């Protein structure tokens, strides 16, 4: 138990978010308890139960708090820059401790199906996949044909970044993100200006 | 030690491949030993050393043996069918115990960098990514523009299948593989016949 000044509101929530993430790294998803998190945060278990029903809800709250929001440019000409920025946001987020928490939940999906389902809801509420918010925005602006933004197209950027991690064991550099946008996402959307191909204009 | 008839040649290699995969599932990559594998296979450690220098080489031999080879159609009109078949081959291979071995090596890349590097060599020799052999073949036939087959394009199909596994926790069905080909790979190659988009013909 850590003695300290009494924390309230945002400061308390922040401390509890840190505590659940540290506890997760140390004991793993299957052994998270309200007791353990409370002890680590130096607070009473009842304080946790006032806001969250169980350790999973507290963990989801930490994940939601750190999950970034894409902010597409208001102008139509910025599709390419917005897509690159979305993928940079993904790479930045992946350095945050909550990215490890997401990985843990997905890896142990069978053992914790209800937590994985709640995580899916959280992603849906936060704009689904990285690049999806940008794609929807530019479809509304008319930069891209609305029908071309399918769930698979929305998942393409994330899939290539995640695959890079698996194959190479480290985060992709900016040049790789640019290639994902120029060689894959823009061509799939029907914008072949970035690559040579049969659809490219003269 | 399992007593049994003396095995030679292909039968012996097959038994040792099974033994290394079982041993991996039980003790993990970091604790594979020639002793443990030999004991499991009911053979002498010297028998293993006659062919392989260490447990990693024996594991790579098992992975290489089970790794499937894509066989593209000799005719030009079969690009779409060949791509779907490549992704089906990937999903089938992923059910094999050596797919878990590949996953283990990639996940522990930092602890076993030399093994991960040898795995990359093995993939390069086996046609790199799933779909790459098919893409190269059809580029030679002239079905697709040679410049459109970049390393990222070659990795696209695998990336979408792997991402599906991570997101959903189970293998994709055939319909999903067809969508990967129709909504992503063919459009990226400049074939927009499968989707509505600004490049599609009348």
Write out key terms for the chains shown.
202 residues, Tetracycline Repressor, domain 2, mainly alpha, Arc Repressor Mutant, subunit A, 2 domains, 10 helices
Give the H and E element order of chain A: HHHHHHHHHH
The largest chain-to-chain contact, stated as pair and per-chain residue counts, equals: A-B, 35 and 34 residues
Task: Briefly note the CATH topology name of the largest domain in chain A.
Answer: Tetracycline Repressor, domain 2
Rg of chain A is 20 Å
* Count of discrete domains of chain A: 2
Number of helices of chain A: 10
Overall CATH architecture of the largest domain in chain A: Orthogonal Bundle
- The proportion of residues in beta strands of chain A is under 5%
- Give the uncertain stretches of chain A in residue-range form: 193-202
Distance between the termini of chain A: 70 Å
What is the 3D form of chain A?
elongated
What does this structure look like?
Chain A has 202 residues and is mainly alpha-helical. Chain A folds into two domains: 9-64, Homeodomain-like (Arc Repressor Mutant, subunit A); 69-188, Tetracycline Repressor, domain 2 (Orthogonal Bundle). In chain A, 63% of the residues lie in helices and 0% in strands. Chain A is elongated. The N and C termini of chain A lie far apart (70 Å). The interface between A and B is medium-sized, with 35 and 34 residues.
């Amino acid at each position: 138990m850590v003695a300290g000044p009494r924390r309230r509101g945002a400061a308390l929530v922040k401390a509890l978010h840190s505590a659940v993430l540290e506890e997760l790294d140390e004991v793993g998803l299957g052994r998270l308890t309200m007791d353990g998190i409370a002890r680590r945060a130096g607070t009473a278990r009842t304080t946790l139960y006032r806001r969250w029903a169980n350790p999973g809800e507290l963990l989801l709250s930490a994940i939601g708090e750190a999950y970034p929001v894409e902010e597409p440019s208001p102008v139509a000409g910025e599709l390419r820059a917005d897509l690159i920025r979305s993928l940079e946001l993904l790479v930045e987020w992946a350095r945050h401790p909550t990215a490890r928490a997401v990985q843990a939940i997905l890896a142990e999906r069978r053992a914790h199906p209800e937590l994985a389902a709640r995580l899916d809801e959280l992603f849906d509420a936060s704009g689904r996949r990285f690049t999806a918010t940008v794609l929807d925005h530019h479809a509304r602006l008319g930069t891209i044909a609305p029908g071309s933004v399918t769930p698979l197209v929305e998942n393409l950027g994330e899939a290539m970044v995640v695959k890079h991690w698996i194959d190479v064991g480290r985060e992709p550099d900016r040049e790789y993100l640019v290639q994902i946008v120029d060689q894959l996402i823009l061509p799939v959307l029907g914008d072949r200006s970035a690559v040579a191909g049969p659809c490219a204009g003269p």
